Amino acid sequence: MDGGSVVLTPTRFLQSNTTQESVVEKMRMGGGGIDNTSAVTLEWALSSLLNNPEVLKKARDEIDRKIAPMLLPHVASKDCKVAGYDMPHGTMLLTNAWAIHRDPRLLDDPTSLNPERFEKGGEAHKLMPFGLGRRACPGSGLAQRLVTLSLGSLIQCFEWERIGEEEVDMTEGPGLTMPKGIPLVAMCRARAFVGKILPESA
Ligand code: HEM
């Protein structure tokens, strides 16, 4: 291997008295004890991807498209079954709320915006933005009041419009709380009655 700037050899971190230079030197000589099938395979794979950036981009786009945000991980405190699957004590369980909320077996036409669907008895339980069970969000009462009151006031007090013909971009950004990929920019105008209450906003 040429003395490149990145040496992908995880095993070297296990050897506290080994400098990077000495590891690289040993690798050049086919160093004993450093050979690691997985690390070598990873190194070749990453090398090939770096020489073929379009394939690297395709792989990353596919991962971004298919790996949805999960709820926080939970761990089984004792052996149990979830949906028929054995969960031995200590198993980490990740809930894919994104997929559950889009499952046509649970909701009719799940990707349509139809808030009235949750007025029907039992339907609200299919929505789980706050998780479920003992570790569900303890702030859900506060959050629901805050969000619904704020959204209600924004709808009540302003006329809203998109800034153009194009639909608002719905791409998700990275991060635990699933922020918007592109921040929302919209036009709003205070409704006439607001001017009577707050003259400076008219
Ligand atoms: C729209 C707003 C919010 C959303 C969507 C949200 C969502 C969540 C979710 C999905 C969890 C993980 C539940 C699980 O592990 O299954 C969680 C946990 C938690 N949330 Fe929230 N949350 C919100 C607002 C708040 C607020 C306002 C507070 C505090 C005032 C809060 C405090 C917490 C705490 C302390 C936990 C950890 C609970 C535990 O692990 O036992 N959250 N939240």
UniProtKB/TrEMBL annotation:
Subcellular location: Membrane
This protein's record includes keyword DNA-binding: no
Residues that bind heme: 137
Chief localisation class: membrane
Membrane topology: Single-pass membrane protein
Needed cofactors: heme
GO CC terms: membrane
Domain of life: Eukaryota
MF GO annotations: heme binding; iron ion binding; monooxygenase activity; oxidoreductase activity, acting on paired donors, with incorporation or reduction of molecular oxygen
Pfam families documented for this protein: p450
UniProt entry keywords in alphabetical sequence: Heme, Iron, Membrane, Metal-binding, Monooxygenase, Oxidoreductase, Transmembrane, Transmembrane helix
Similarity-based family: Belongs to the cytochrome P450 family.
UniProt cross-references to PANTHER family, sorted A to Z: CYTOCHROME P450 82C3-RELATED, CYTOCHROME P450, FAMILY 81, SUBFAMILY D, POLYPEPTIDE 5
Protein name, UniProt field: Cytochrome P450 family protein
